[in-house]
Amino acid sequence: MAVVAGRSDGGSERSPRTVPYAVALLVTVLWSSSFVLIKWGLTDIPPLYFATLRYGLAFVILLVADVALSPRGGQRAAFGGRNGALLVIAGVGGYTVAQGLQYVGLFYLPAVTTSFLLNFNPFFVLLLGVGLLKEKVTAVQLVGFGFAVLGAYLFFSERVTWGGQIFGVVMVLASGVGWAVYVVAVRFFYGSFRLSPLRLTTVTMGIGVAGLVGLTLASGEYAPLTSVGVLTVVWLASVNTALAFVLWNWTLKAIPAYEATILQDLMLIEIALFAFFFLGEPITLLMVAGMGLVIVGVVVAQLNGRPRPPRAGTVASGSGSRKPPS
After folding, report:
1. How far apart are alpha carbons 273 and 267 in whole angstroms?
2. How would you write the pLDDT of the chain (326 residues) with one tens digit per residue?
3. What span, in angstroms and rounded, lies between the C-alpha atoms of 96 and 177?
4. Which of 61, 106, 165, 173 is deepest in the core (most CB within 10 A)?
5. Quick one: which H or E segment has residue 256?
6. Structural domain of 146
7. Domain tally for the chain?
8. In a domain, 85, yes or no
């Protein structure tokens, strides 16, 4: 995509969207690096406990920012009745289920496989949109889904074994369903009321964290953190979650939402490279072919549906129908 605009004097000047694109790319790199940090952290920290610590701290940071930056009053009406129920559904789906099960899946699966599976989230959103929002599926979207299915076949044809990996696949796919519930709930919510992106993310994350605390206590799996574990949690919560959210929503003021989703598709490649160099995970030609087909399928399906993108910044990942923040 072009980032340089021509000038009448024969020279060139930097496009006003150059910086937002660069920042958006930086955010995708931060989110991609999360997979490596999470895999490292999971060697000492139980998955549900890990997710609870990260998003609990991120919630505190966003809450402070929300109190400091948001105008007083004016948005309280959004928390009652039907809207309140939608916020609870969004919080539980988007954080308790999506993030909790994603961490469990990462415990059993390689980072590349987890990232690959998360690229199917837009199709879960599409299916829920058809069933609950009465949205129509087009022929182009079906073609995109076909590309993605073929890509999945190639990717997994030489990779998945029975046992823990199959359980991990189920957990990650279930986390995708949770994220789709979040996105659809947010669409319902904005049909009747609008919150600032920061307020919406803070409230839903807080609800989701409460659910994560409950799951962690029920599992009984928590352990003292090492100094490295503390640093990992703090970095993931403050930089890869809170700061990345702010930066991503800032970029969406200049970048159309559908273009932002394409930028996020680069994460599949970024994560594969991170996992290869830092985790020693192999990358085969069939895996590359499968990832390529899935990216094509997702882009085709989303570009076809771009006239109805979600409001910029209505979710923590900033895109509305892509994978959850990592």
Report:
1. 10
2. 334 444 444 444 555 668 888 998 999 999 999 999 999 999 999 999 999 999 999 999 999 998 898 776 555 555 667 778 889 999 999 999 999 999 999 999 999 899 988 888 878 877 887 777 676 778 888 888 888 888 888 887 766 555 568 899 999 999 999 998 988 888 777 666 667 788 888 999 999 999 999 999 999 998 899 999 999 999 999 999 999 988 887 887 787 766 776 778 788 889 999 999 999 998 889 889 988 998 888 788 766 554 444 443 444 444 344 567 67
3. 12
4. 106
5. none
6. 16-304
7. 1
8. yes
Q: Of 124, 120, 252, which is closest to residue 177 (Cα–Cα)?
A: 124
**Radius of gyration over alpha carbons of the chain, in Å?**
19
Task: Please state, in angstroms and rounded to a whole number, the distance separating the CA atoms of residues 174 and 179.
Answer: 9
Three-point CA angle 72, 64, 239, nearest 5°: 135
106 contact partners, CB below 8 Å, separation of at least 6: 35, 38, 39, 42, 47, 114, 168, 172
Residue type, 294: V
Residue 284 forms part of a structural domain = yes
Tokens of 5: 């605009």
Overall residue count recorded for the chain in this entry: 326
- Tell whether 311 is covered by a domain: no
In this structure, the dihedral spanned by the alpha carbons of residues 118, 123, 127 and 130, taken in order and rounded to 10 degrees, is 140
d(CA 93, CA 288): 31
* Packed helices 111-118 and 164-190: angle between N→C axes, nearest 10 degrees: 40
Q: What are phi and psi of 312, to 5 degrees?
A: -55, 130
Residue 120 lies in a domain: yes
DSSP state letter for 13: E
Query: What is the DSSP-derived secondary structure letter of residue 4?
Result: E
Alpha carbon 36 to its chain's center: 15
- For every residue of 53-69, DSSP letters joined together read HHHHHHHHHHHHHHHHH
